[in-house]
Amino acid sequence: MSLSAAGADPGRRAPLDPLDSGGLGVSEALALLRTGELEITGRLVDASNATLLCEIRADELCGRCVYKPVRGERALWDFPDGTLAARELAAYEVAEAMDPGIVPPTVMRDGPFGAGMVQLWIDVDTTVDLVALTRSDDPQLRRIALFDAVINNADRKGGHLLPAPSGRVHGIDHGVTFHTDDKLRTLLWTWRGQRLDAAETTLLQGVRDALGADLGERLEPLLTTTELRALGARVDRLLAEGRFPLPSGDWPAIPWPPF
After folding, report:
1. Distance CA 14, CA 33 (A)
2. pLDDT tens digit string along 226-255?
């Protein structure tokens, strides 16, 4: 079933609004992130791993971005060392195949402190109440909740949601994803156990098909073979059950701290 046949898809929004991204469109943003010169201007001190705010310039293009060098990643007991940046890019690739715009434009490249993840900075509408947002039934959050189930996101905090001035809500911080064990931890349980609608089923079918083609090829350098198989199995399970997942009794349902 096509999306047009399924009717309007309230969870789908424009991938990137220049109002939120310093005037950049998607293609401009990706070109800038891949080739621009990074100048570190600050550090986000609340982040668990080294997260550096940068100005980035290439010819006539300029903007802001976040740079997370691999060497600044904190070791975790349940994820292999030095893999979080690659998981961030893998999450972006899945989002692009599923519903472009969930994750801001993201690349892997060299920077002042070596290889790392570089992601476009998104301006935030600070008037939005994040607590109220996470408790709402906003269709964009429903789409992000489905995305998190696909990538097995172990850390969907409220602060990892960016309500932008255009009204678009983006998701960031996807380093602890794609584990082979069920580690879904999120504030977005509003739709737990609810049936998938036609548009959501179509999106998942598209991801499943893409995993056997171009998406799978892009993910191969970023994830292990076992993690790729687990990703495919999660998509198949969601399609077979036709519902949003329920919290696991074997793992905390909500990350700590939640915001």
Report:
1. 20
2. 999 999 999 999 999 999 999 988 878 999
DSSP 3-state assignment of 252? Answer: coil
Q: Which long-range contacts (CB under 8 A, 24 or more apart) does 208-215 make?
A: 208/232, 208/235, 208/236, 208/239, 210/97, 211/235, 215/93, 215/94, 215/97
> From CA 14, how far away is CA 6, in angstroms rounded?
19
Spatial distance between the Cα atoms of 151 and 178, rounded to a whole number of angstroms: 5
pLDDT digits (tens, 9 = 90+) for 44-101: 988 889 999 999 999 889 999 999 999 999 999 999 999 999 999 999 999 999 999 9
Residue with tokens 């401009």: 28
Distance in angstroms (rounded) separating the CA atoms of residues 234 and 86: 20
Longest dimension (CA), the chain: 53
Is this structure's pTM higher than 0.85? yes
Instruction: Report the b/e string of 115-145 with b at 16+ CB within 10 A.
Output: ebbbbbbbeeeeebebeebbeeebebbbbbb
Look at residues 136, 156, 203, 178 and name the one whose alpha carbon lies nearest to residue 1.
Answer: 203
